[in-house]
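User: Can you predict the 3D structure for this chain?
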Amino acid sequence: MSDIQLRLLGAPAIVIRGKCLEVRGKPVALLAYLARQPGYRCGREKAISVFWPDDPPERARHNLRQTLWYLRRVPGRLVTASRSSVALETGALCIDVDEFLAGIVEVENPMQVSRLRASLSLYSEDFLDGLDLAGATTFEEWLLFEREHLRSCYYRGAFSLARWDLEAGSPAHSIPIMERLARMEPVDEAVARMLITLHTASGQQAAAIRCYQTLTRVLDRELGADPAPETRILIADVRAGRLQGGASSGRQPQPHISQPAAKPARSYFAALRCGLSPTGSDFSYERSAGLTGEYRYITEALAGQYGAVHVEPKARAHLILFSEVDTAVQFGLKLLELWARTVRSAVRQPQPLIRIGCHFGECTPLGNGEAWIGRAAEIARRLEELAEAGSLVITDGALDLLTPGLYRYVPVGQMPALSGH
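Assistant: Here is the predicted structure, written as structure tokens:
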């Protein structure tokens, strides 16, 4: 084991030869930022723009020098610096995030199982849990996206392990991990379905039913919605005793991170390009990182609730595909309704509106099926007619009949990294 450990999952800490040192504020934030950069290095000017964006240049450079001086006092030589860059000294350093990510795999053989379990156990809490840097809005936005990326990795690993344990006949081994994931993602029905399946396959029918009841209460409270049809079918089979050993009358619940089934030559979808649109010249995304997080949470939770077949995040926007136009319209209306509640309760003004882009109704796979070309369907206009006045902005041009758009297909749950990693 390395002499120095940098713990960033949960409350940040530095462990040197078994002794835990608490480093707070911008010094530990800088260590974490460097730990997630290519080569564990970034330019001095980049670091200044992230941590002291509003300070005068000379004061910002002084603040960086002070932070580096503080870190050099920590035993073990954690950082090195030149005139142009700052870097982690990784020779004797073990970073828990690196260990965690290295073990997140789709399990294919027993040798990978123990490593995946060990990796998942490292995720004690969210990345830099409890860290709050007043005034560093650029860092806060980066931190928000980094947390989402690492959460999605935990999600993918938990499902991979649960599938393996189900097939290996040891479903109880994955129950604690999926229970924790259910606490992290309380409105995610794919998580609930997997947990219900694990409980039932372990002979714990009562626990499976309690899991469903909890999901029902949370969906009603948070989204004002009922469980999806596939979830209701699953619990009906559990109650009727038709689900045994993970199979439900030939219908085994498939978590939405599973590999997609082969597609026919042509499929029909309804797509929404949703995002945030600033209102007023004084609106700043950087000062509204919290609202950006709320938008992401609401959009992705609703996408799962409404049975989206594809969700692809793009900075402050999403491309979302549904199997039916009516479902896409209802999703859009619910998104606008929940967003209106969110911004009305926020303190800062002005607030961004939801932006709805052009859409397509017919998608044809290209090449190996990883990309799709689509033709437009006027879903946005239907939303404009039905939505509350002033609640959205309609944009055009992304997809239309003359210049169809090209999109890479990414299954829900296998979203690309949000921060470039």
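The chain is about 45% helix and 15% strand. The longest strand covers residues 270-277.
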